[in-house]
Design a protein that fits this description.
elongated, 24% helix, transmembrane, alpha/beta, transmembrane helix
């Protein structure tokens, strides 16, 4: 019987070590990319030094091309009241035919589409809005924040003071901003 002089010692294989080193390198590359990304994004869009120049400009400005037309102004000089809703006209803000939606139905649905308008709500519990300066502000018997004349408080892009009919039993009046176009936010309890 011949005995071999070389002996094989069982030991750790090289494969797990190589995999561990590869995983560590991948993690370092990932973290290195994440850390350096903010620095490379600003220079990625900079051509001919424009990136550095853009960093120095605090605000953007819009300048239209030369035109023969005069610039126009977007301010409103007068607000027309809906006929029959002026102060002293006997209009109290009370609903004539009643509400099409209760506050509970409105809150459950979240959105009411009615006569071309989209009504959503926001609560004074979430957004108190003491700076709105609503004369006689109170929560009416139906749970809507109202003014002294019974108008429901609305937010919209129409001029402040504009009156809208609503499906909630009371007309509303714009006191706040926050929506655009035919979208009106109704202020609730």
């Amino acid at each position: 019987m011949a005995v071999s002089a070389s002996t094989h010692h069982p030991g750790p294989s090289r494969t797990p070590r190589v995999r561990g080193i590869g995983a560590a390198a991948a993690v370092l590359a990932l973290f290195g990319t994440a850390v350096l990304a903010p620095l490379s994004v600003s220079s990625a869009f900079a051509r001919d030094g424009l990136g550095a120049m853009a960093a120095e400009v605090p605000d953007q400005e819009f300048t239209s091309a030369a035109s023969v037309e005069q610039d126009f102004e977007l301010t409103v000089s007068t607000v027309e009241a809906v006929p029959g809703t002026e102060r002293g006209s006997g209009f109290t803000g009370k609903a004539v035919a009643g509400a099409l939606y209760t506050l509970q139905q409105f809150m459950f649905s979240g959105v009411v589409e009615w006569q071309g308008y989209k009504f959503t709500y926001y609560s004074q519990q979430v957004l108190p809005g003491p700076g709105l300066q609503i004369p006689g502000r109170h929560v009416n018997e139906d749970g809507y924040v109202s003014d002294e004349d019974g108008y429901i408080v609305l937010a919209g892009s129409a001029p402040k003071g504009t009156v809208f009919e609503t499906p909630f039993g009371h007309p509303g009046k714009i006191y706040d901003r926050g929506t655009v176009g035919n979208h009106l936010d109704v202020y609730i309890r």
